[in-house]
Amino acid sequence: AQMTLGSMELVAYSVSERIFSICFLLFGMLFSSTVISSLSAVMVQYQMRDAKSTDEIRKLRLFLRQNGIDADMAFRVRQQADNRLRKPERLTEGDVSALECLSLSL
Asked: SS3 sequence, 48-62?
């Protein structure tokens, strides 16, 4: 009950109880805001990562519709494009900057 800001009536009978209650209310506020901001950051990162492939699929759909491609063929094209766009790319040596720090004897 002490972790959430103002969720219950606090009746402190001494100065030490009042200080304890205030400290835990501040800690609860800090903790909950940290958790919420971390979750928000993860969600934004996920959306940004998927934004490019989602935009490419949207453009492909528009292209197929504008050019009158058969529905069955358009479905197969979209499915294959979606699978390939979402497949993680294989890393090369140039992508990993930490490899430059290694000694040549390795």
From this structure: HHHHHHHHHHHHHHH
